[in-house]
Amino acid sequence: MSLSPDREDFVDPDQPPSRPSSVLSGSGDSFVNYSDGEEEDVESPAPLNPRQVASTLRRDNSRCILCRKQDGLQVYRLVGQDNDDANPSLLWLQGFKFIPAHYDRDNIANLMTLCDAHVATYRARVWRLLPCAEFRKGMLARTPLRGDALQQRNRSASPQLTLPNAQSTLFDVLVFLPELMPPLSPTEPASSRKSRKKGKRAPPPGLSPRVLPSLLSLQIDPYIAYASALEMIGKAYWPPPDEVLRLLEVKCLEIRRRWNNSL
Ligand SMILES: [Zn+2]
Questions:
Q1: 38 C-alpha vs ligand 1 centroid, how far in Å?
Q2: Where is the composition biased (Basic and acidic residues) (predicted)?
């Protein structure tokens, strides 16, 4: 019997857990860290219906939508990966009728095919997709471009149709945490090399490695992508946004403000 337990046996309730609880809790200098978290993935709630996975892979040509890799693929939700169907972003968009009321987080419009590295970094909010400038003009005017189109399509479409939208939208890629961003498409490093070769010349005004305009044409829902981008837009992150990203954030927050004020 011991009245003074060994210090090492003492469990301090304030002590952090021995396992890192976040993918970003490592040094952050290597993506190998991300694959260490496989046990965490087991804890992820609600696996996707295999039919939705197959449909999404088929739609995305079984490639990561960002880097075109064909191995280590996962189908990942744009919003609501870690919470239930009462997702605030989806409810927000449904409230404005920008997306159909029947959309849940497992709708293919909310799914994308990604490689392991881009899943880990999407999850860590390193990057987000944003509908291109032309589409955002309509969003700012609160013109439910896709909403109208979808409602008409739903009226005429057969009820068994699982692919609600064959339309593609052009997306920008926003890089909030550039130091953690894995390489993008094969064209991205090539253009970086090119600009480096040119050497001293400053990048053209308006170009930024943090905002890659109209990089991808995708069949995912642009409104959902926008709502997902709001998870980082206007938030605290390092390094802070450059001028291009900062101006884009202002425009995106203005869309949100106008929608909310329209009620
Ligand atoms: Zn990828």
A1: 18
A2: 1-10
Burial of 59 (0-12, 13-18, 19+ CB in 10 A): buried
pTM value surpassing 0.70: yes
Q: Ligand 1 centroid vs 183 CA: distance in angstroms?
A: 8
* pLDDT beyond 70 at 194: no
Note the maximum CA span of the chain.
78
Q: What is the mean pLDDT of the chain?
A: 78
| Separation of CA 74 and ligand 1 centre (Å) | 10
Tokens 């952090």 locate to 16
162 Cα–ligand 1 center, Å:
25
Question: What letters, b where the CB count within 10 A reaches 16 and e where it falls short, cover 119-149?
Answer: bbbbbbbbbbbbbbeebbeebeeeebbbbee
Calculate how far, in angstroms, residue 117's C-alpha sits from the geometric centre of ligand 1.
6
* Amino acid residing at 73: L
> What pLDDT was estimated at residue 63?
97
